[in-house]
Task: structure prediction
Amino acid sequence: MRWRIHDETEAWGNSWLSVRRLDVEQPDGERLDYHAVRLRHVAAAVVTDGNGRVLLMWRHRFLTDRWAWELPMGLIEPDESPAEAAAREVEEETGWRPGELRELVYSEPAAGIMDSAHHVFRATTAVRIGEPTERNESDRIEWIPLTDVPGMIARQEIVSGISLVGLQQALLRDLLG
Result:
């Protein structure tokens, strides 16, 4: 069953997102006014080391007024691939340069109301290159045992959707070999 868009206009937008008004036809032929958000796509990285640790950032999200651990992540610029964006974000936000990045998982977190694509990569090595250049991203950057992640998720110390998807996929792949 396929829905069809007859018309789409922007209600409001900026360089990050666009709130859209759509004239949509449902599979049964009924048409309705629908609202959606078109967002720039995001890339993140699960960076692990040879000691079974993962690189995480402790940060405050002001919209939810919540502190939690997150993966390095950010918007994909128009001139870069998702993997290039993930590598850039790791460097800018943590001061670590990831080794080879391999695709880990792709998700669309809320496909019924927004079109953002989340690309998560994995690197199993990283080299410290200096201090983070993005100074407003986190209070702490730490290497945390990957085995601690399930408990952190249970205690709601990791709540970001892209971080949850990426970390759980990394744990699943490690478990299954």
The chain has three helices and twelve strands. The radius of gyration is 18 Å.
